[in-house]
Design brief:
heterodimer; A: Rossmann fold; two-stranded antiparallel sheet; 11 strands; 25% strand; globular; B: alpha+beta; Mth169, Chain: A; 3-stranded antiparallel β-sheet; 2 helices
Amino acid sequence: MMRVGIVRFPGSNCDADCARAVREGLGQEALFLWHKTHSLEGADVVLLPGGFSYGDHLRAGAIARFSPIMQEVVDFARAGGPVIGICNGFQILCEAHLLPGALIRNRGIRFRHRDVHLRVERTDTVFTRACCGGQVLRMPIAHGEGQFVADVETLAELEADGRVVFRYVDESGCAAASANPNGSQNDIAGICNGAGNVVGLMPHPERAVSDLLGCKDGLPLFRSLLAAVPEAVAS
Amino acid sequence: MRITPRPGILDPEGETIGRALGTLGYQGVESVRAGRLISMRIEADDEASARDSVEGMCQQLIANPIIEDYSILIEDAE
């Protein structure tokens, strides 16, 4: 059985949805990890869920990044453990320097909540192994600070290294200004670290895991985790 | 501490304020950048140690050097 540790910060609000995606979508074990603890409790995967940790004060993710458990999360990530950050979780990963760049206020200032289409740009990360290259997935976004920015050198490096994992596209999988909901540079919706074991994305795959939710396109991402920790699944 | 978006970083808030000013008829506003101001009272032996301390706060938490610059103003050192 794979154990997915979902970190709860004060203000997290997608933690239960993530647990449900893991339990009902994957049939695997989800456990909640309180941010003040110093143990990952043997988790095979660490997931930082969406929400508004610490009320998004100062900058989204800026304070959560210093929560006690983050030291363990950083160590786990540096040792190659799979770490996924969704929405606020992505913001926290950037603030913690586990991923480059930053997420700033959406262009146009508004909180955006709607379905978007993503193109999977890379299939050898812990969160995309069960996807096909170029696959287009539909899932919702819900964020006010989702505009990905990085300096020119960092952006060039991300592109050259193929570390852009998801890009906002239109329904047919093509780039389009109208498909980018927040003004992110290069239509970036999600990126990974050099090793591909840390992945962050703004859209919410956990809100797209059953017919009841209107879409199941988030499931391949969660299924990818099974491929990332095969020994845990087999035992 | 005065925190401002770094040059080159898009500032949607500043742009929106700029557009609103244009709508209100204010002319000649070439660019608007919006930041934040954080004021605090701290106790320190002297101004230099206060500055050191605040500098550390800015670098570690208050500003994100990827997207923001900061400056420090110390007033009323007693």
